[in-house]
Design brief:
about 35% helix; 5 strands; 5-stranded parallel β-sheet; alpha/beta; globular
């Protein structure tokens, strides 16, 4: 739903070193603007029998708000339009859970708070040495997730860069503390893959065995905390596997059609 971000993370394949762009915080990929006209088209689609039949046929029980950057960096009008769309979705399909991913490295505005309150599932990333640029970033991030963990389930997402592997013990201690303090209810580890110009990314782990060890070590954390490792690694190439082997169906929704 957007292409703006307040970060420029080295592990992201849209980092400025891999993609030429004039605006540091706006990726050179166009999205349909979430103005009133397109929002009305979205409303028309999700209100249709075709959409309802697809949800039931494909056993879809969740919808993720996807952004190339961070959805919270969109302007006030866009955030209000997204809030309206989510509200309509929840009114039409109360069985659907709405998921949102955000970095939480910002001061929360009224529009942001309204949207966060409306969704069911919040995911945030924890990437030492890449996403956080200063101690103040970490403090702001922690303050936000500590507050919102009392309101919504918070899931932690970690990109397994070589920097994360280097600080593995510290990482595991942090995850363990967040679990025991009931600030996160689960976490995910994703391998860093090389795509296009980002193949030159020096944050990609050199030794796959190190990545496998990281995943194994985190699996030893408190299972009562609903800890989920969502990524396994193939020794020939980084691929994401689901260890529970349930089928995944993805529907792409745009203002023109399903």
């Amino acid at each position: 739903v957007g292409n703006k971000c307040n970060r420029d993370c080295m592990h992201c394949f849209l980092h400025k070193e891999y993609n030429k762009r004039t605006n540091l915080y706006e990726y050179p990929i166009n999205f349909d603007p979430l103005d009133k006209n397109n929002i009305n088209r979205y409303i028309s689609i999700i209100s249709s029998n075709k959409f309802r039949e697809l949800l039931i046929k494909k056993h879809i029980n969740s919808i993720s708000l996807f952004s190339l950057g961070d959805i919270m960096m969109e302007d006030k009008e866009t955030l209000s339009n997204i809030f309206f769309l989510v509200s309509k979705l929840k009114a039409l399909y109360p069985f659907i859970k709405i998921k949102l991913q955000t970095n939480f490295i910002y001061h929360i505005t009224e529009e942001m708070e309204s949207l966060l309150n409306k969704v069911d599932d919040i995911r945030t990333s924890f990437d030492i040495h890449t996403r956080f640029k200063s101690v103040s970033d970490i403090i702001l991030w922690y303050t936000n997730i500590k507050h919102w963990s009392k309101i919504k389930p918070i899931k932690l997402e970690i990109v397994a860069t070589n920097k994360m592997i280097e600080v593995k013990r510290k990482l595991i201690r942090v995850i363990d503390k967040l679990i025991k303090k009931n600030i996160i209810d689960s976490f995910y580890i994703y391998p860093l893959t090389s795509i296009g110009n980002a193949k030159s990314n020096n944050l990609i782990p050199n030794n796959i065995d190190d990545l496998i060890d990281l995943i194994k070590d985190t699996m030893e954390l408190d299972v009562k905390a609903n800890t989920i490792i969502d990524a396994l690694v193939n020794r020939d190439y980084f691929k994401i596997y689901d260890i529970f082997a349930y089928p995944i169906t993805v529907l792409s929704l745009n203002p023109d059609n399903l």
